[in-house]
Write a structure and sequence with these properties.
- The structure is a single chain.
- Helices cover 18% and strands 29% of the residues.
- With 294 residues, the chain is α+β, with helices and mostly antiparallel strands.
- The radius of gyration is 22 Å and the shape is elongated.
Length: 294
């Protein structure tokens, strides 16, 4: 089995720097270094194993091999048809269909995107578990970002915390919007006596949603949305709160006559590649059920 590894050719700017300090600058966490030391990883310079206390010299080839990842016994690989828009050694970008959970749950223990990714990895002999960076609700369609290794997930999660990863959604919302553009800043928390449902409440977590009406129909609108925060069900809760629930969203009061799921799609995804540092942008068209409505 091959281990995930990263390597650097040391330049003059890093001459004399301790490996420990250099790796900290590469955002390799203390917990990752502990795993490398005690769980089967390896740090080498010019093909000789070293410790993090070794000073680097210009021209050195520094290689960090991470330990093998252990998959959960409960996460079984399945053969699912994945719509993969992009793949390299570090990340996957997948266009998820509505009706597929991102990860298994008690209600839906199989058939999730994660099960399909494990099945895909098994075919490719890729020894890793699933690291979902951007999760979508079961009935929300669109782009999902997946890291192929724990360290890559750590780097992308850091981007998420700093607002670097950007997602744009499109939705079909009920009613006539009085304003073409707007911002909803309302705190969101778990609804009392409910495991699933969220609601706007004073003691909830800060949440901010920007919206723009792309097209207003007789009794519903095609809307573009961008999130400043990523609370559970944020778009669904916020639009319902201002009187414009998503079509098909029976949990939050949306009319369900014209579509069988909440009319919400993650249309675009932008992030900085965690290794190459190049900006990447991916887009996908509206699925058929939403396109039919607009």
């Amino acid at each position: 089995m091959s281990r995930f590894q990263l390597q650097w050719e040391i330049n003059i700017d890093n001459h004399g720097k301790l490996i420990r300090d250099f790796l900290k600058e590469q955002f390799i966490s203390k917990s990752a270094l502990t795993d490398i030391k005690f769980a089967g990883g390896r740090i080498s310079v010019n093909n000789h194993e070293v410790t993090v206390r070794r000073p680097l010299q210009a021209g050195d080839l520094l290689v960090v091999e991470f330990p093998l990842e252990n998959r959960s016994d409960s996460l079984k690989g399945e053969e699912l048809l994945l719509d993969i828009l992009y793949e390299d050694d570090y990340v996957l970008v997948i266009n998820k269909e509505a009706g597929i959970s991102t990860i298994p749950s008690r209600e839906h223990p199989a058939g999730s995107l994660a099960n399909g990714i494990i099945g895909y990895y098994e075919k490719k002999n890729h020894d890793a578990t699933v690291h979902i960076v951007t999760r979508l609700d079961r009935d929300t369609s669109g782009l999902v970002l997946v890291a192929k290794h724990r360290h890559i997930h750590h780097l992308l999660s850091t981007q998420q915390k700093h607002g670097i990863i950007k997602r744009t959604y499109e939705a079909i919302a009920a009613g006539i919007f009085l304003h073409k553009k707007g911002t909803i800043e309302e705190p969101i928390g778990r609804k009392k006596d409910s495991i699933i449902e969220r609601t706007v409440q004073k003691d909830g977590q800060y949440a901010c949603t920007h919206y723009e009406v792309l097209q207003q129909m007789t009794d519903f609108a095609h809307v573009r949305l961008m999130l400043e925060t990523g609370r559970t069900h944020q778009i669904r809760v916020h639009l319902s709160h201002i009187g414009h629930p998503l079509l098909g969203d029976d949990l939050y009061g949306g009319p369900a006559a014209s579509i069988t799921r909440q009319a919400l799609h993650c249309r675009s995804l932008a992030f900085i590649h965690p290794i190459t540092q190049k900006p990447l942008l991916f887009q996908t068209s509206l699925p058929k059920d939403m396109k039919r409505l607009v």
